[in-house]
Amino acid sequence: MTTPTPLLPKAASESLEKGIASFPTYTIDDVIAATPTTIEEWRSYIQARNAEQKKKIKRMKKELEVNVELLKLGQVVVRKLTPSVVSPEFENKAYIDVHGGAFVLFGGLPSIEEGLLVASRLGIVVYSVDYRMPPTFPSPAALDDVTSVYNTLLEEIGAQNILVGGTSAGGGLVLSLVQTLIQNNTPLPKAIYVGTPWADLTKTSDSLVTNECIDCVLVTYEGHLKAAAHLYAGNKVLSDPSISPIYGSFEHFPPTYLVSGTRDMFLSDTVRVNRAIRDSGGVTQLELFEGLPHAAYLIFYKTPESETTYRLMKAFFQSHL
User: Fold this and answer.
1) By three-state DSSP, how is residue 190 classified?
2) What is the pLDDT, as a whole number, of residue 84?
């Protein structure tokens, strides 16, 4: 059962306001009732969500004129996304894209959603990682896959030519990747992007409470998010740094570009990551958008907020190459 459309952000762009108004809204009880409780239910839910997302991706692929090539780097499935025009400043560079989806959704073709936008709007070759996910593969499978892809490209083109980024769960995995590379004394990417990262899988961050139900995308931590967090963690506690990178070290992080919005339930995760990097001596650029729900710069990609997100990302990467 849906609830009436909530008050819309008056200072956001008209197109973002329209996007939010068109988005289905649910109560906390709705979300909890719709959350899978068995492995079979999870598989059915994932299949249905991925099938719906695939329709959007096929439209985006045609619209953005990006060539998609399925291949393997090491033993990991990736999709190489090549824009029709590569920007001169990104010649011989590569961007590793780590998709979101609460660590359980958007495997297969849907994994390239943000990769398509990055390839098209930045003019850079993108490798979207189709990492393994629960319920079949809990942690550390996803992190192992992302690390493997990074190490393979490291050998091929060198760390000075690699950029890495992702949104939501993907942003969390990017943070975990960098922490893993630092622990292993592996050369780091030149810069990273973490869009509204799910960096703390526990119910600790303030905006999980303050933006509950105001965020039309996530709605509530109870239900899907909480259940997906435990699926991903497997036998580990949610506060384990390998699960929730906010509890790990942020010493020696590469330059980091972060994005969130005032309606985003992961706003606090984003702010906490930004503060942790800055307090550890790192360089960050934090961009916050008025009225933006979780990852809405990606969901509603035909908005000024979305255009600005990737324009600033391009400038940030250029300044650190």
Assistant:
1) coil
2) 95
Average pLDDT estimate for 214-225: 97
> Mean pLDDT over residues 86-112, rounded?
98
- Which domains does the chain show, CATH number per domain? 14-320 (3.40.50.1820)
- As a whole number, the mean pLDDT across the chain is 96
Spell out the residues 6+ positions from residue 7 whose beta carbon is closer than 8 angstroms to its own: none
pLDDT tens track for 137-147:
999 999 999 99
Sheet holding 162-167, edge to edge: 66-73, 76-83, 125-129, 94-98, 162-167, 191-195, 256-261, 284-289
HEC assignment per residue over 129-174: ECCCCCCCCCCCHHHHHHHHHHHHHHHHHCHHHEEEEEECHHHHHH
Other CB atoms within a 10 A radius of the CB of residue 319 amount to 11
Distance CA 17, CA 22 (A): 9
